[in-house]
Write a structure and sequence with these properties.
With 470 residues, the chain is α/β, with parallel strands linked by helices. It has a domain of 122 residues. The chain is 42% helix and 15% strand. Strands 1, 2, 3, 4, 5, 6, 7 and 8 form an 8-stranded mixed sheet that branches. The chain has a 3-stranded antiparallel sheet with strand order 9-10-11, with no helix packed on it. Strand 3, helix 4 and strand 4 form a beta-alpha-beta unit.
């Protein structure tokens, strides 16, 4: 009987250990986190600096200034280690810190390729489950970044070449686009879609189109396609050029045109661009993304005037439109979209007085309400915030002091920032104002883990990942 009882007891103990092990594994999978965040935004919005600061704030969360991010305030974070993600170039965090701690300090290099980093965040879990799972838990955080110019290619995936040309025709007919290079636009209007294509002529014309797009970017415009033409110096880049006289022919005539015609040749170039460059990129970058940060330099857009501000609004509207339920059929052919939250972040508010920060946040909120349809809001949590990844100015209530990019130190003032979509009176107040380009603050201790001053990065961390520590 004793042997039988011992045998039963041992079998029960063994089975209990198996159940316990399975339960711990199940709970571990439930409570360990793996979150993938994409960081996007048009060129100049500060993506590289934002990522550098975000990583630094997490690695050195013991510094003051992160009170809005409870895991840092409550000293839950134990360690943060970074590794590469297979298939992606490693984001150059070390290079960003080296630039910011240099003499004189420099801004991190702008994004020139797809890059990413994986953060392994070990933390103490403050819940009733911590006793079962152990004191230390881990959040795996993937951060992905890519050149902002590529962002504008996303809406092209929904358009045929003919539709894209007609869209460009409308855009190019209005100021300020129509005034940038009238000669080029006149030459594009003269092109007969049915004429025989000449490769040398098209190459020359495409180079002029690239120059035009870069001029438009300098003028403050945002909705510029193809995006890679703004950066890429690759001679093999498909020549995506708009034909501006398609209204002379019916869709059927264009579809039946000879393969040697200008229309068919440029149509092939357009689809090569989408198939060989744009689609593979979106498959690689967006697959599995859980949350998105979209950086917006609203201050710069305001300073360029009403036309450029509205152009930026249109650009973001088209990007958001890609997330609408009815438009995800084509998107799902590339990848399964899993985005559950988008944070629209107005960057670089340190160029504004602190009492104007709330007006800027309300303006961003008004912008997103205007361009983000309810069909998106019902499925994806949309949030707005402002943040300076690096604070480069000192607020004196009536004015700011800062060091400009050229090394001069002085006082800065600015017109009132509207807390709603700008009206005529706002544009009159903003006319002639150019936001300064600031130099990062001197911070030689940064490379040794020194504090990196910021504005509201703790709120950004709270909104992006705060729920994963509760």
């Amino acid at each position: 009987m004793t042997k039988t009882a011992d045998s039963v007891r041992n079998q029960f103990k063994s089975q209990w250990q198996k159940w316990q092990h399975r339960g711990e594994n199940l709970l571990g999978r439930s409570f360990d986190r793996h979150l993938k965040i994409g960081v996007t935004g048009f060129s100049g919005s500060g993506k590289s600096t934002f990522l550098t600061s975000l990583i630094h704030q997490l690695k050195y969360s013991h510094h003051p200034g992160l009170g809005g991010f409870l895991p840092a305030r409550d000293k839950q974070l134990l360690s943060v280690d970074s590794t590469a993600i297979p298939g992606f170039a490693l984001f150059d965090y070390a290079g960003g810190i080296a630039a910011l701690s240099d003499t004189p300090p420099r801004w991190p290099n702008p994004t020139s390729e797809v890059s990413a980093t994986r953060l392994h965040i070990t933390f103490k879990k403050g819940s009733v489950w911590s006793g079962l799972l152990g004191d230390a838990r881990q959040l795996t955080l993937d951060l992905r970044d890519y050149p902002g110019e590529w962002l504008m290619d996303m809406p092209m995936l929904k358009l045929s070449y003919r539709d894209w040309c007609l869209d460009q025709q409308q855009l190019l007919s209005r100021a300020p686009r129509a005034d940038l290079d009238p000669t080029l636009l006149a030459d594009l209007h003269k092109l007969d879609p049915m004429q025989t294509a000449d490769t040398d002529f098209l190459t020359s014309l495409f180079q002029r189109w690239q120059t035009y797009l870069r001029q438009a970017k300098q003028a403050g415009l945002t909705l510029l396609q193809p995006g890679r033409a703004l950066l890429d110096t690759d001679d093999n880049l498909p020549m995506v050029l708009p034909l501006l006289s398609l209204h002379d022919y019916s869709p059927e005539q264009l579809e039946k045109a000879n393969e040697t015609t200008l229309y068919q040749q440029l149509r092939q170039q357009y689809h090569q661009y989408l198939d060989n460059l744009v689609k593979p990129f979106y498959r690689q970058f967006f697959t599995g993304i859980d949350r998105q940060v979209m950086l917006i330099d609203v201050v710069k857009a305001l300073s360029h005037g009403e036309e450029c501000f509205n152009d930026m609004m249109m650009a973001y509207s088209r990007i958001i439109d890609c997330y609408q339920m009815g438009n995800q059929i084509w998107l799902k052919q590339l990848f399964t979209p899993t985005v559950n939250k988008i944070l629209f972040l107005a960057s670089k508010p340190d160029r504004l007085l602190m009492h104007q920060h709330e007006a800027l946040r309300q303006l961003v909120d008004a912008m997103i309400k205007r361009i983000c349809p309810q069909s998106v809001r019902h499925r994806i949590r949309i949030e707005t915030e402002i943040a300076a990844a690096v604070r480069s100015s000192i607020d004196h209530q009536d004015y700011l002091t800062a060091t400009l990019q050229d090394g001069r130190f002085g006082e800065l003032r600015h017109p009132p920032i509207p807390d709603e979509l700008p009206q005529l009176s706002h544009w009159q107040q903003l006319a002639g104002w150019t936001p300064p380009v600031l130099r990062p603050p001197v911070n030689p201790q940064l490379a040794q883990g020194g504090r990196l001053a910021h504005i509201r990065m703790d709120k950004v961390l709270r909104d992006l990942i705060g729920d994963k520590f509760s």
